[in-house]
Design goal:
Length: about 250
């Protein structure tokens, strides 16, 4: 048991909390300690009866049955593996930025478990698109294709691809707005981590280091002069917290 405890404590904090809650909530429903209907998202009960816990529990709840148990375990592994890599890689030492990514994806995804996991996996794959990954039966390919391979895999074992497709699309939306458009294409920044998250989750130096880095900013966008620009500077570049770039150099 001490080995399991050591392994669990080795998981980075944000992923550990999400992973533990994604085990606890489904089993609470499975064991009947709480009626599973109280864990699911029912919008009229949120708005009319103020069941404010439902948006959270609906994201963590998964109906475990003999037919869905394997799919649940597979996605639980994806959560642990890719969220850990992303938190200790591209978001190393930047818990506020990682929490903001999860919040953004969570809201866009309509608060469901599998799409949120897939959105995190998609973002990790974009940071590591040229890495060769191994999948079932020894197949190997670039990480860029991993979200779509998993979409097909989950469709085969679960009979649906809507959740996986939703997660991929939301992950793409976040990555495009946060990194691709402002950094690679030289456009304005539409997303930035709220300042209050930095107050509660300050940046840390000397983290675990990394899998993946954000796209390089185009030189022309980097070298633009700052003084005298019209419009009060409202479209300036996003400052990643406390003076060093997300993912490091």
């Amino acid at each position: 048991m001490s080995d399991i405890g050591d392994w669990f404590r080795s998981i980075p904090l944000i992923t550990r909390s999400w992973f533990a809650a994604s085990i606890a909530v489904p089993f609470i429903g499975k064991l009947g300690l709480v009626d599973f209907r109280h864990l699911m998202l029912v919008p009229e009960l949120v708005y009319n009866k103020f069941h404010l816990w439902r948006p959270v529990t609906a994201t963590l709840y998964f109906p475990i049955t003999p037919n869905t148990g394997f799919l649940y375990l597979v996605n639980l592994y994806f959560l642990y593996h890719y969220s850990s890599r992303l938190e200790t890689g591209a978001f190393d030492g930047r818990p506020a930025d990682y929490i903001f990514m999860l919040l953004f994806n969570w809201i866009c995804i309509v608060l469901l478990m599998i799409p949120l996991i897939m959105s995190v996996l998609y973002v990790w794959a974009q940071f590591n698109k040229d890495m060769i990954v191994s999948f079932w039966f020894g197949t190997r390919f670039k990480a860029h294709y991993l979200p779509w391979v998993i979409l097909v895999f989950n469709f085969i074992i679960g009979g649906s691809f809507v959740n996986e497709l939703t997660g991929n699309l939301v992950g793409h939306l976040y990555f495009f707005l946060m990194f691709k458009y402002p950094m690679d294409l030289g456009g304005r920044s539409f997303l930035s981590t709220p300042e209050f998250l930095y107050r509660y989750f300050p940046n840390k130096r000397g983290g675990v280091s990394g899998f993946g880095v954000p796209p390089s900013r185009r030189p022309a966008a980097q070298e633009q002069a700052g003084g005298g620009g019209g419009g009060g500077g409202g479209g300036g570049r996003h400052n990643w917290g406390q003076g060093f770039r997300l993912g490091g150099e």
